[in-house]
Amino acid sequence: MPSLDILRAGPRTTVQDRGRPGHAALGVGVSGAADVAAHDGANRLVGNDPAAATLEVTLGGFRARANGPVTIAVTGAAVPLTVDGRPRPLYSTLHLRSGAEVQIGIATAALRTYLAVRGGVDVPAVLGSRSTDTLSGIGPAPIRDGARIAIGDLHGELPAEDLIPPPAAPTDPAELRLRMGPRDDWFTPASRAALVRQTWTVTTDTDRVGARLIGAGPLHRARRGELPSEGMTVGALQVPPSGMPVLFLADHPVTGGYPVIAVVVKDDLPAAAQLRPGDRIRFRRIP
Fold it and tell me: In the chain, what's the furthest Cα-to-Cα distance?
């Protein structure tokens, strides 16, 4: 069977699919691709079943060799992409001969790139998913140099199109829509207004669990005391005692004890997952 030999894995490459919902009672989060839109687009270009797993490459610096003829697609962050040293387009179907080398360079914009191979990345499923949950440690280990990636058979016919349009380039600052609550009443009216009035910056403290933000001033509580632990969701803006919010991403904890002032809407989560340290954000409140 064809496979991919990993010559250079890059700093943070993991296997991801659409996650493992339904296990929060066991303390296990959904996890899955941080930018599910890019993940789904890559799978669509190679004719994969939506359940197929891809490689999520953070920042780039990835190189692999086809062991047998394979079909791939690369989506997500803006990266230089080459096959045997020749530039190739992102968001396109690419047919590789046996021995061909694909290289994903360092991202020039955004953060996460998705490499889909026709048939899907074939690793053992844990609780119904092949995703690596970096917080709990559930799922396959992060990809290392020298690994051989088996390819599965989760595919159908190739699509009629072999090229799809990439998403619009991100704005500066990025705009993320949110809905206030469920604990916005724990904050002063001035802080609720400041959340959407001021510009926030992503700090270096960011990973698949979440992105810590910094702004012109902290968000102040209107209430004292401790909040009992309650369920968390992807996109939640949790505010620790520092007053600087944390935006939870794919591998967020299933519970938390700090109040959540607002939640980013589902359609904007792919953009949130592509934010890198130094990127700026403005939040827009919607009903």
Answer: 63
Q: What is the pLDDT of residues 142-152, one digit of tens each?
A: 999 999 999 99
Domain residue limits at 249: 174-285
> What is the full DSSP assignment across 154-204?
-B-SPPS-SB-PPPPPPPSSEEEEEEE-SSGGGB-HHHHHHHHHS-EEEEE
- What's the CA gap between 70 and 100, in Å, rounded? 9
Give me the count of residues in the chain: 287
83-87-93 Cα angle (round to 5):
65
The enclosing domain of 256 has a CATH number of: 2.40.100.10
- Residue 224 is predicted with a pLDDT of 86
Q: Tell me: do 145 and 266 sit in the same domain.
A: no
Question: Within a domain: residue 157?
Answer: no
Residues 6+ apart with CB under 8 A from 269: 36, 234, 235, 249
In 3D space, the residue among 152, 132, 165 whose CA is nearest the CA of residue 48 turns out to be 152
Assess if residue 158 is contained within a domain.
no
Q: Are strands 70-78 and 81-83 parallel, antiparallel or unpaired?
A: unpaired
Rounded distance, CA 244 to CA 46, Å? 41
Q: What is the pLDDT of residues 166-190, one digit of tens each?
A: 999 889 999 999 999 999 999 999 9
pLDDT of residue 268: 98
Considering the domain architecture, whether residues 7 and 114 belong to the same structural domain is answered as: yes
Question: How many structural domains is the chain composed of?
Answer: 2
Q: What is the pLDDT of residues 53-76, one digit of tens each?
A: 999 999 999 999 999 999 999 999
* Burial class for 142, CB neighbours closer than 10 Å (0-12, 13-18, 19+): middle
In a domain, 231, yes or no: yes
Check whether residue 136 and residue 253 sit in a common domain. no
Neighbours of 144 (CB within 10 A): 9
| Residue 99 shares a structural domain with residue 12 | yes
pTM: 0.96
Let me know whether 131 and 214 are in one domain.
no
Domain membership of residue 193 (yes or no) is yes
